[in-house]
Amino acid sequence: MPFGCLTVGEKKEYHNPSDVTDKYDLGQIVKSEEFCEIFRAKDKATMKMYTCKKFLKKDGRKVRKAAKNEILILKMVKHPNILQLVDVFETKKEYFLFLELATGREVFDWILDQGYYSERDTSNVVRQVLEAVAYLHSLHIVHRNLKLENLVYYNRLKHSKIVISDFHLAKLENGLIKDPCGTPEYLAPEVVGRQRYGRPVDCWAMGVIMYILLSGNPPFYDESDDDDYENHDKNLFRKILAGDYEFDSPYWDEISDSAKNLVARLMEVDQDQRLTAQEAINHEWISGGAASDKNIKENVCAQIEKNFARAKWKKAVRVTTIMKRLRAPEQSVSKPAVPGAAADPTAPQASANPSAPSSAAGPDGAPDATILINKTHGGRCCAWKNIHTLEPFQILIITNCSGFFLINQSETMHN
Question: Which PROSITE patterns did the record assign (predicted)?
Answer without folding.
Answer: PROTEIN_KINASE_DOM
